[in-house]
Specification:
With 258 residues, the chain is mostly beta strands. It contains no helices and 19 strands. A 6-stranded antiparallel β-barrel has the order 8-9-12-13-11-10.
Length: 258
């Protein structure tokens, strides 16, 4: 007997009974694997699909040029013009690995769109169950309210909370506040947001003609745009300069420097 059976032209491989498989996925979860050419190992429950690959699972659809799929662990590895779609999530990448715990690792020119948020980078780790994301090679997160990027980026797409490290840039679209720093954490909610920045912090607001520099900074839009600068703090507006170890700047409609 041959170890593998080959089937061509859009073969559909389906597991008929999950009750005998010990996985964390519910027993009645249907799975389909489609491809032009498929090799399936009945002993290991492993399949290799080549050409026009489609994997349908848990309401999500994966497509690509080539894939391996483990029907026991439900781990999929797919390469070549990869797309992934589920609910309001759309992803494009050069390669992708996903497992039964809804954890996805996408690599190569990754673009992940979730509702109003768009993430771009060379590698994105995304947990579909928790909405947690991490970008160990850096990247950019763009939402309706703000953009943030850094050499390393992590956060949550549901709570709009992000942490960036290395060459950090933060742009608030609704409050006209831009910041560069070594590290920063950001949290947004509707029109309001706050952030904490550390290390070589430079903040500017072009509409207010304000530029600040400091070792550290915190900002809260709900407190009349309260910006607190600490450590070698300098604030400049319309040619006026204020220096101190701690400066508080209100970036609301009425701008004051204390």
């Amino acid at each position: 007997m041959k170890k593998y059976s080959k089937l061509k032209t859009a073969l559909v491989v389906a597991i008929m009974s999950f009750s005998m498989i010990n996985t964390v996925i519910a027993a009645d979860t249907p799975i389909e694997l489609k491809g032009d050419i498929i090799e399936y190992n009945a002993q290991t429950d492993m399949a290799i699909a080549i050409g026009g690959v489609t994997i349908i699972r848990d309401g999500g659809v994966l497509t690509g040029g080539q894939a391996t799929y483990n029907f026991k662990t439900q781990e999929a590895s797919i390469t070549g013009g990869v797309t992934a779609n589920k609910d309001d999530m759309n992803l494009k990448a050069e390669s992708l690995i996903s497992n039964a715990n809804q954890e996805v690792v996408a690599k190569g020119s990754v673009v992940l769109v979730k509702a109003d948020n768009t993430l771009t980078g060379e590698e994105i780790h995304y947990n579909q169950a928790t909405s947690d994301i991490s970008m160990p090679l850096g990247g950019n997160a763009t939402g309706p309210q703000a953009d943030i990027r850094g050499d390393v980026l992590s956060g949550n797409l549901m709570t709009n909370q992000y942490t960036a490290t290395g060459n950090v840039y933060l742009n608030s679209k609704t409050n006209d506040v831009q910041s560069t720093s070594d590290t920063a954490t950001y949290s947004g909610n509707g029109q309001d947001f706050n952030f904490v920045a550390t290390g070589n912090v430079n903040i500017k607001s072009p509409s207010r003609n304000i530029v600040t520099n400091s070792d550290n900074a915190t900002y809260n839009s709900t407190e009349n745009g309260k910006l607190v600068l600490t450590g070698n703090a300098v604030a400049t507006q319309n040619g006026n300069i204020v220096r101190g170890n701690t400066l508080t700047v209100y970036l609301g409609d009425n701008v004051n420097i204390k």
